[in-house]
Amino acid sequence: MASQGLGKEQSIQEMIARSRNNKGKKFIEKLMPIILVITALISVLTTIGIVFTLIFETFEFFQRVSITDYLFGKEWLPFSGSEPLYGILPLVLGTLKVSVIAACVAVPLGIAAAIYLSEYASDKTRRTIKPILEVLAGVPTIVYGFFALTFVTPLLQELIPSLKIFNALSPGIVVGIMILPMIASLSEDAMSSVPNSIREGALALGATKLEVSIKVVLPAAISGIIASVVLAVSRAIGETMIVSLAGGATPTFDFNVTGSIQTMTAYIVQVSSGDAGYGTTIYYSIYAVGFTLFVFTLIMNLLAQYISKRFREEY
């Protein structure tokens, strides 16, 4: 009887301990959704705040400068004392020149690296090379900028004597090197997701390893590859320090890649460093340029999402 009473007492104590633990678990279960909602709202509200700040300040700029002159003007001379000119086309063209050169460097090299890692490299080689390749993505862009200015430009001047110290070619190449790991890594992930049965079927029909890689795996993973390219190019459009250091500060509306240029991000850096007073037209121009850059990157990201959904293969 005494042992039965002791057993009941112990079981009651265990029940009380369990109920206390259950109360703590229930409290945590109720608390966690609230915390997650708050964190999600913070990111959403931050994005909304950034967009509205750009819109309001850009609207103030267009109160002073004609939107037609801004969108279609071919001269960008905000610091001209007599008659400042705010035609965005030279900055847009400078940005596009760097981005196109970067894409010409990064896309073929990145896809070639992805094909090797996905189709040819052994597991040991892949585990070794891929982290080394992705280290490039962690290098600060200011280091890339000095690399472009002090190494790549003098090297190119040996091949192109007419190349100026500040130009579009050198930063374009280095930006391409910077975005190469993004294309290689994302494209390799897309190609690795293609089922092996497709490869085996093509090999069984007599296709070579190269033919399987180029004509079978590459088309099957095309949605992920194109999305990686679009995202990488949008990253190149928004690059700042490399083009600021190696590109120069001369906005020109031409297609020459050997002379000094200025991109949209480089202009924002120039004005933000203290070249314009608060409340001036030049000050508000950085918001207009920033909003233009925001529209560019937004379009690129939406395009990447559309391509990814439009050409996605279901296995």
UniProtKB/TrEMBL annotation:
Signal sequence coordinates? none
Domain (ABC transmembrane type-1) spans: 92-304
| GO MF, any single term | phosphate transmembrane transporter activity
Q: Which residues cross the membrane?
A: 31-56, 85-111, 132-153, 165-184, 216-237, 282-304
What's the domain of life for this entry?
Answer: Bacteria
Q: Where is it mostly found?
A: membrane
Instruction: Give the matching Gene3D superfamilies.
Output: MetI-like
Q: Name the keywords, alphabetized.
A: Cell membrane, Membrane, Phosphate transport, Transmembrane, Transmembrane helix, Transport
Question: Which CDD domains does the record match to this protein?
Answer: TM_PBP2
**Compartments where found:** Cell membrane; Membrane
Q: What SUPFAM superfamilies does the database record attribute to this sequence? A: MetI-like (SSF161098)
| Topology class, membrane | Multi-pass membrane protein
| Matching InterPro entries | MetI-like, MetI-like_sf, Phosphate_PstC
Report any one BP term from Gene Ontology: phosphate ion transport
One cellular component term (GO) for this entry is: plasma membrane
- Please verify whether the record's keywords include Membrane: yes
The family database entries (PANTHER family) matched by this protein are listed as: PHOSPHATE TRANSPORT SYSTEM PERMEASE, PHOSPHATE TRANSPORT SYSTEM PERMEASE PROTEIN
NCBIfam families named in the record: phosphate_pstC
Question: What family name appears in the similarity comment?
Answer: Belongs to the binding-protein-dependent transport system permease family. CysTW subfamily.
What does this protein do, in the record's words? Part of the binding-protein-dependent transport system for phosphate; probably responsible for the translocation of the substrate across the membrane.
What is the protein's given name? Phosphate transport system permease protein
